[in-house]
Amino acid sequence: MCAPPAATRKIYEDIKRTLGAPFLNTVYLSLARWPDFLSAYWESLKPWLKTPLYEQNRLAMRDSALSLAAILPRPLELSTAQMEEAGVPKDDINGVVQLAESFLDLLSKQALNIAFAKIGLEDGETSEVAA
Questions:
Q1: Residue 60 and residue 19: Cα distance in Å, rounded?
Q2: Residues with Cβ < 8 Å from 110, sequence gap 6 or more?
Q3: How far is CA 55 from CA 52, 109, 112, 113, in A?
């Protein structure tokens, strides 16, 4: 696999810095197949990331995901208290909690960011699914 061009690497670094991500998700890496699109997409999206509307919707998506996960037929039941009782060191528990929070944060951002791209590609129109 060859390294992306300098302009694409610059966008990648800006995405990571702006999203507070230690790495880029494959979605963003895939968009590099179309460098002009990646550049236009990021220039359009970046200002929205700092708006209250974006954050409000990101948090709503995050809360919805947590609510839906809680009602799955076999939800994962692994509390910090259970991990402590199993002898997991406190530092490891804290690391797992931080990782889960970071992952949830990045996934909610990614889902909104991809929806932004999809709506943009549809000229601002949303498609309706036939019932």
A1: 18
A2: 25, 27
A3: 5, 9, 10, 12
Q: Where are the domains of the chain?
A: 6-121
How sure is the predictor about 35, in pLDDT bands with cuts at 50, 70 and 90?
Answer: very high
Lookup: tokens for 87: 């002898």
Q: How many helices (H) and strands (E) does the chain have?
A: 6, 0
DSSP 2-21: PPPPHHHHHHHHHHHHHHT-
pLDDT tens per residue across span 39-88 = 999 999 999 999 999 999 999 999 998 898 888 888 677 889 999 999 99
111 touches 61 (CB < 8 A): yes
What's the whole-model pTM score? 0.74
